[in-house]
């Protein structure tokens, strides 16, 4: 099964003139030559490298085992260190009782952000707190921390004598311990939280736990002392400020009262001045007088109208008059008598006339009483009008007094504001002073932190970690030894190239041509006619690295950025190794393509002839057999003769392949004429003739003919087992001496 395959680098359509294609090929070689050449030169033979590593395995195993043993001894000889850990939670612990002036709902997170937590970490590591912790833990005189404990060693004495280091006695005990104290102390915030971890390390597990707990307790006490100092300094400042402020307030209030009395701005009820109260009273009295006047005038008018209409007795003021009621009663009695007497007496009777006269007199008295009521109301209206006039005059005068007193009140209000400000300030200071005095007691101002986890005596050492240390040391030594062996093999392989000509290192050589043994060099170079350009290579599939190395030595260095192109003539006969077999071997180690022009083959498949005619691209003609890595290009529909007849276009296409692959093999028939092979052989970096077995005179003749067409080395490829090539050379010489 044949599968179309794209080389992945570029697709070239061979169209147009030969000169244009050649120019483009040269430009591509110049642009990509350096990178492509270096990429091919840097490809490594992993199998050869692995074989070299196995060959030098003792160089890797010995240091690794030594590192394991040394690390085991080291972790058991190093004194163990234990770490005690205490954790502190930073939070606002003020409450309503410790800080009455603030809200109890204040969040503790507002006080300690990330910067605040880092600040508290630095406070715990401060030198003042360190000195206090050193005293409480008792590190002075401890040989683990105090360099001055015990006698000086001989080395330290020599250092002191020559001035390299100072004598421990020249420093205070706490200063001697500080350096070692900070080496054994670790303070850090725990994750994204307000928890601070305090770790203290010592050879003594009890001392490690005690140190962590003591440092945490000392920090809390320092925080409480700082708060008490703040409250004490605040109360001291307030005590010196309150007394002068009280005197200033008394002076301001005295100025207010003096100015008030001097300007007559005395305050009455409802905190208003006398003039303002008088103005208010006059306004109220004036309103009442006007109401009385209007009421009296209205009543008088109503009574007069009622009198004119004869409805005097319907007026409430007239009807309610005591005299009028008596007169009305008398009139009723007289009318009753007149009615009684009229039954017996005539109207001209004296008795009737007397009674009528009395009745008329009563009517006159009633009218007079009504008129007196009207006059009384009118008099009351006049009196109310006079009162209105007097109140209006008094009100106008009081307004003038009030307006004249406004300027004085403005000054008075300014004095009152100043006095009120001083009073508020004094009250605030007095409240703060009482709060500060309340906080200036023990446990009244708790620290803004608390210990949430106290250190316990550790049972496992924190250093050294025996198993991890041994594993890391062993693995590190193993990797270093492995890298050293691999680097040595690679460097030796690069250095083994001959000095006379740069040696190309193809990707399948496995890190470069290694040092060859003398017998192999002699075999590769043996059979040497035509100036040593004709050699012998044994194709041994059981030892492919050696075969491919021999092949690399028989190939000239290609132009920079190009892959080597090799002409392979198929002259081995039936059953011998073919050019296709050699290409398969190369494809296992690098990117290799074979242009198969030995026979026409299947003319139904597109091939090189279609590429030259511009009817197909590389991706259309490159095929790969299933399960194989070898890329192949056939002759195409027109056959191999059409391809070999256009050497210029073939050269352009081969240049493109050399830019893409690591090896390009052009397989041709050993019976082709020299004129046909000359253009291809002239630009090749090597020539191979598949001879099969020794004694193949046709292959030897083809090799000689090929060596005349190219300046590159030419070699015969023999099948294993390797045999002497001298007999084949003698046969070829006898063939040349025979007459035509």
Automatic annotation (TrEMBL):
Gene3D superfamilies assigned: P-loop containing nucleotide triphosphate hydrolases
Pfam families, sorted: Wzz
Stored InterPro entries: Bact_polysacc_biosynth/exp, LPS_length_determ_N, P-loop_NTPase
GO CC, one annotated term: plasma membrane
Subcellular location: Cell membrane
Residue stretches of biased makeup (Basic and acidic residues): 27-36
Membrane-traversing stretches: 58-78
Keywords: Cell membrane, Coiled coil, Membrane, Transmembrane, Transmembrane helix
Membrane topology summary: Multi-pass membrane protein
Annotated Polysaccharide chain length determinant N-terminal domain residues: 44-135
Coiled coil: 242-299, 324-379, 405-443
Residue span of region Disordered: 14-36, 494-516
GO molecular function, one term: protein tyrosine kinase activity
Source organism (scientific name): Bosea psychrotolerans
Protein name per UniProt: Uncharacterized protein involved in exopolysaccharide biosynthesis
